[in-house]
Design brief:
The protein is an all-alpha fold. Helix content is 39%, strand content 0%. It has a domain of 26 residues.
């Protein structure tokens, strides 16, 4: 099993004011731009190709009708 290490150069300590500026930046973006950025981060976290459309595995669930008994 591989051991993972945190890259401490990728992160920085921010003040509340700097963090608030990040929020202002993202609130200036459209909803689609924010969703695209979120999708990119999710795909990066799960090592997926963010350009391809991913389909839900429908074999994991089954549909049953409710019987009135």
């Amino acid at each position: 099993m591989e051991s993972y290490r945190l890259d401490r150069q990728a992160f920085s300590v921010q003040s509340f004011e700097e963090a608030s500026n990040q929020r202002d930046y993202w609130m200036q973006k459209t909803a689609m731009e924010r969703l695209a950025a979120a999708w990119y981060l999710v795909c990066t976290a799960y090592q997926l190709d963010h350009h391809n459309q991913h389909r839900m595995d429908r074999t994991a669930f089954s549909i049953r009708t409710h019987s009135n008994g």
